[in-house]
Design goal:
Distance between the termini: 114 Å
Shape: elongated
Radius of gyration: 48 Å
Oligomer: single chain
Structural class: mainly alpha
Number of strands: 0
Helix content: over 70%
């Protein structure tokens, strides 16, 4: 009892407003509520078991074959797609280019590309000429090169 008084005094010192609230229960329970409660719980659990769908029982007999069938069908559709592409003949490509329906090329782009090709050819020929000049200046015979290899 003394402990209860100490708690009430501590509550009054910490929160005086809370200590002034009446200590009565404003909630009521229906008559024989706790006597009927276990029966109500059992009835609800039985009713829920009647309408409960069991995934584990259903899966073994239906879902495994259905999923394997779906995978097989997807594989059939995936691998039987028409993957052949239509190839154009040289005549068809030439007609497309000549008729200017398919490819439109700017003349300056063609000139630039051709000039780059010419520049690369000049570089390769100049290096070839340099090799030949080196061999002539140093009096190196082609047979000696073949012997070294």
């Amino acid at each position: 009892m003394e402990n209860k008084n100490n708690i009430e005094e501590e509550l009054e010192s910490i929160a005086p407003f809370l200590s002034k609230i009446k200590k009565e229960n404003n909630f009521s329970t229906p008559l024989n509520y706790f006597e009927i409660l276990p029966e109500v719980i059992v009835n609800r659990s039985l009713n829920s078991k009647l309408f409960n769908f069991s995934f584990n029982k259903f899966s073994k007999h239906f879902l495994i074959p259905a999923s394997s069938l779906a995978v097989i069908l997807l594989m059939i559709f995936y691998f039987n797609r028409n993957t052949t592409e239509a190839e154009l003949t040289n005549e068809q490509i030439t007609n497309l280019i000549i008729n200017d329906e398919y490819i439109k090329i700017d003349d300056y782009l063609v000139y630039d590309a051709y000039s780059e090709v010419l520049d690369e050819e000049k570089k390769t020929t100049s290096t070839t000429d340099e090799y030949i000049n080196y061999l002539i200046e140093n009096d190196i015979d082609i047979n000696s090169i073949i012997d070294e290899l």
